[in-house]
Amino acid sequence: MRPRSRGLTLLGLLFWALLIAFAAYLAVRVFPAVSEYITVQQVVQRVADAAPASVPEARAAFDKFKDVEYSITSISGKDLDVTKENGRVVIGFAYTREIPMFGPVYLLFKFDGRSK
Fold first, then answer.
1. Where are the alpha helices (DSSP H) in 50-81?
2. DSSP character for 109?
3. Distance (Å, rounded) from C-alpha 76 to C-alpha 35?
4. Where are the alpha helices (DSSP H) in 6-108?
5. Residue 91 and residue 114: Cα distance in Å, rounded?
6. Quick one: which H or E segment has residue 95?
7. Which residues have C-beta within 8 Å of that of residue 7, sequence separation ≥ 6?
8. Which of 2, 84, 106, 111 has its CA 20 to 30 A from that of 23?
9. What is d(CA 70, CA 57) in angstroms, rounded to the nearest whole number?
10. What is the pLDDT of residues 42-81, one digit of tens each?
């Protein structure tokens, strides 16, 4: 009796290599968009915590932070929705981001959030 061979075939190795490479490519393309969203959320919270007196003041404060945080490119102060709820300033935002993958294929992210 011949012992049965065990291990990974060349086709199996190529399959897993392609799968891992695609996942890495996807992560590299998506990470900047998610990082920008997290930064926008933090900046919006900081501006809301400062309790601006008016809507233009809140938008100007966001734009000042945006000038410092170079990772924010998809949204500006004019895109913010500034309201008051229970005597507190609440800032909301919503934007989309398209990420080209290859050829005519894009990923579309719809981000929205608000201060606490």
1. 55-68
2. E
3. 16
4. 10-49, 55-68
5. 5
6. strand 88-102
7. none
8. 111
9. 21
10. 999 999 999 888 899 999 999 999 988 888 999 999 999 9
